[in-house]
Amino acid sequence: MMISKTPLEDWILNKISSNGELSHLTRSAIEAFQLEKIRQTISYARSKSRFYRNLLAGFGSDPVITINDLSMLPFTVSDDLINHPLQFLCVSQSAVERCVTLHSSATTGPAKRLFFTKEDLNHTLDFFHYGMSTLVKAGDRVMILLPGDRPNSVGDLLSRALLRMNVESIIHGFVISPEKTVEAVLKHDIKCLVGAPVHIFALFQSGNGRKYLKGRITKVLLTTDYVPDIISSVLESEYNCEAYSHYGMTEMGWGGGVECEAHCGHHMREADIFIEIIDPKTGQVLPDGEAGEVVITTLNRVGMPLIRYRTGDISRFLTKPCPCGTVLKRLDKIFCRMNAAVYLDSEKPLITQLLDEELFALPGVMDYKAEVSTRGNKDCLTITLSLSSKSNRDEVCAAAMEKIMIIPQIESCKKRLFIEPITCFEEIILSPGAQKRVLIDNRKEHL
Fold first, then answer.
1. Which residues of 46-55 are buried (b: 16+ CB within 10 A; e: fewer)?
2. Which of 29, 241, 318, 321 pairs with 261 at a CA distance of 20 to 30 A?
């Protein structure tokens, strides 16, 4: 099958070459544009933002002459957005079109606050438009399983972007009851879904989902959280549904990068965001191909630019050319989130992703909750499954226990780890779509 080139390439070409001086996109053109935008962003932030004026005070009037010079500047971290949100503002508060309060799924502490102007939101609209054109065309009907009741919320922006393409959308919101959402899909004759991976997976795994969605939903965009390989695999092999992955976060302006038809890495919005991969311990920039922490610098943000913001996500740039033929770089899937890693007796962390690949492979598993606590002088792992109504609960729970026992991080410390018998919720319980799924650490020494 012929793989179409990602539509993001032409979009980025038009942003870089607004006067049409470039006939095609090249890496050198992208990098020259990024360097100029980085320098403009630093100058703008220093003159308008009290936070960056103070942070960059000792770095000279023009600290970035080459891309490599950026690595000499200090990082911005989550605590900065929590403790000093208004100091980041480069515009008056009256010019803020959208303010987002962002609670972390891994902590119960204060929230981050992020501010966006109308121009900032328009950049996101553009990305949603061109990113979604990979999946849908005029006349298609999309259900958005994300919040969209507020103006300029992520669901509202996506719906407006689809309207540019003459694609009709239904903003449904997060999935609470899979069976009721399946009814809405059938009622509105939906062909494509956009939502959290576990929520979309639960729709297909539900009783009516298994009965009605195969062959009806042909494409899905999995977003807002890590995308387990097993979920994409099951959707495609059992339901004939092509699964695309999106990587983004609110700090990026929601949109970051999306897969093309080749399904081998996220093509990033390189005219809007510059990405570095760093060693989480040393802070040194790593070469392409090596895994490390994703660090972003926004290139055209007006309200609240971010310079070298540490995301806490672990990934890498892929080095082989994409089969679609684009010159855009590809960011691999997110391997884990640093603040969601739980260490038992092994030097390697137990992370949600390891449990995902084992548990979602079992028939009827729609979601699960996992937490580590303390029992006596041992760590205690408790897992509770959420199963579809027709599942054999005893069989699935027994199979789940066998699956997790062979995970290396668990197998290596079985003698010092108490594992509760795996049980099921009495009713279908899905992880809140507004939060990223994590392995909860309730041990006293970690509170």
1. bebbebbeeb
2. 29
Q: What is the DSSP string of 124-187?
A: HHHHHHHHHTTT--TT-EEEEES--SSTTSHHHHHHHHHHHTT-EEEE--S-S-HHHHHHHHHH
pLDDT digits (tens, 9 = 90+) for 388-424: 888 899 999 999 999 999 999 888 887 788 899 999 9
Tokens of 361: 């492979």
| Inter-residue contact 368 to 397 (CB < 8 Å) | no
* Residues 186-217: tens digit of each pLDDT: 999 999 999 999 999 999 999 899 999 999 99
Q: 341-446: what fold?
A: GMP Synthetase; Chain A, domain 3 (3.30.300)
Q: Residue 390 has what DSSP assignment?
A: T
Distance separating alpha carbons of residues 382 and 356, to the nearest angstrom: 15
